[in-house]
Amino acid sequence: MIRRNFIQQATLSSAALFTQGFGYSKAGTGSTVSTPFNLDYAVHDGMFKENAGPDFVDQIQFAYDNGFRSIEDNGYMGRTVDQQNKIGDKLTKLGMRMGVFVVNFDNWPLHSSLT
User: Fold this and answer.
1) Bigger pLDDT: 10 vs 96
2) Rg of the Cα trace of the chain?
3) What is the pLDDT of residues 24-74, one digit of tens each?
4) Most buried of the four, 7, 20, 48, 63, by CB within 10 Å?
């Protein structure tokens, strides 16, 4: 074994492992995965704020592009009807599902439709 070749290969392998996690792109620049996850993982508002920006609809698109197919939104009842419609339209367009959302006593009795 030649020591110089071993050190070069070990250094390149280490660098490749270290930089592997930096492949995410900004929203709208394309997918980083070829297939969705096998399990139904769901994202929350703010999880991809640094990648997709502060708008939850843009975060939903980023999540879809990266293999997610569901969302959970604990703040759903506190959103305006317009925001709820935008989220619902985006989920419908992408074929995504809405998982859990929370109905707090702050929003009781219900002031918006759950349909």
Assistant:
1) 96
2) 20
3) 444 444 556 778 998 999 999 999 999 999 999 999 999 999 999 999 998
4) 63
Q: What pTM did the predictor assign?
A: 0.64
Cβ 77 vs Cβ 104: under 8 Å: yes
Report whether the peptide linkage leading into residue 109 is cis, meaning its omega lies within 30 degrees of zero: yes
Q: Which residues of 75-103 are buried (b: 16+ CB within 10 A; e: fewer)?
A: ebbebeeebeebbeebbeeeebeeeeeee
DSSP state of 35: S
Q: First CA to last CA across the chain, in angstroms?
A: 68
Cβ contact 82:89 at 8 Å = no
* Six token digits for residue 41: 């993982």
Tell me if 41 sits within 8 A of 71, measured CB to CB.
Answer: no
